[in-house]
Amino acid sequence: MHIPQTSPAQKFMTLERHIIEGERSHPDATGEFSALLHGLSLAAKLVWREVSKAGLVNMQGSTKRVNVTGDVVKKLDEFADETIYKAMDHVGHLCVMASEENEDLLQIPKQYPSGKYVLLYDPLDGSSNIDANITVGSIFSIFQRVTESGNGTLEDVLQCGLKQIGAGYVLYSSSMMFIYSTGQGAHGFTLDPTVGEFLLSHENIRIPKQGSIYSVNEGNFNRWDPNMQRYVQYLKEDDKETGRPYSSRYIGSLVGDVHRTLLYGGIYCYPGDTKNPDGKLRLMYENNPLAFIVEAAGGAASNGKGRILEIQPETLHQRSPLFIGSADDVRLAEEFLAGKRT
Ligand code: P6P
To answer: What's domain 15-202's architecture?
Structure first.
């Protein structure tokens, strides 16, 4: 029988099949991890359903609340936060959750079994863009618990990024995508709304070693360290040998900016500055999971001095500067920030 060459999507390589087949290569895999990702993909579809019609059902705008890190809470932030928690609280494989929208740990309700995993998530990153219909996303990070039993604790949650056993993000954009990694490559799935399945569309994503796009909010230029200013000025100089000037792209939505960087190469920067020495982005909910994905695709992620994934967290909502993208671009940024380049 002639079997035609088919694209990954045509192979009906669904997210679920990809996870299960990936687990088969782990002798001690128990299927619990695939159940977690299945729950997250369901939550993502429920969030997508609201995000995609936000303008029609009065789900835009704010709740008049401010969250633990001072951001105004949008109606969709709240919806996404509750949806992910409720989609995951009963799966039986988690001992605790933590959300960027909640100050404290989120315990598993007593009526449900708990498990050996820990889930951290940013329910709706970039939500300030919702009302302008700009890409937003959800980000998640999964660890194994370190305490023996009982309710998960801060000790289970505050682990360095290298200990993640999986991480991913969902993009709510012109199409809906689910990108994840368990450390063996980064894989992208696009939702086929006609069947309600995520189909493999970006198998084993590899980020270019160097890019030609930089992504940073230059409105903060005057607050930056002079070495950071010199770095961005360098990228703007005209030098064909080194592929400069770079193009500037910044949509103010971390998941969208990092996803473009992952596929096209280049660098996304959120540096510290005189007003926010540690920058704006959260280590546990944004930087760690995105660093895990980008490193799995052959890229790099730094706080300007060292690897994001090696930072030992001290508090749940701590921030860190972020320089993430092509390995050569991140390395060059680190050299400028260390004053080794002029
Ligand atoms: P600024 C959104 O609030 C967010 O956390 C990220 O999604 C985004 O990259 C960043 O803040 C934008 O921050 O200071 O450039 O507006």
So the answer is: 2-Layer Sandwich (3.30)
CATH architecture of the domain covering 213-337 = 3-Layer(aba) Sandwich (3.40)
Contacts of 110 (CB under 8 A, 6+ apart): none
Ordered by start, the domain boundaries in the chain are 15-202, 213-337
Centre of ligand 1 to C-alpha 322, Å, is 12
User: 100, 257, 329, 334: which one is catalytic?
Assistant: 100
Q: Is the CB of 69 under 6 A from ligand 1?
A: no
Q: Rounded to whole angstroms, how far apart are CA atoms 103 and 317?
A: 8
Task: For residue 80, give the nearest of 255, 322, 317 by alpha carbon.
Answer: 255
pTM over 0.90: yes
Residues in the chain: 342
Tens of pLDDT, residues 3-54: 556 555 556 899 988 988 887 776 666 678 888 999 999 999 999 998 887 6
Look at residue 177 and give its three-state secondary structure. Answer: strand
Domains 15-202 and 213-337 share a fold: no
For residue 198, is pLDDT > 70?
Answer: yes
For the question of residue 71 being annotated catalytic, the response is: yes
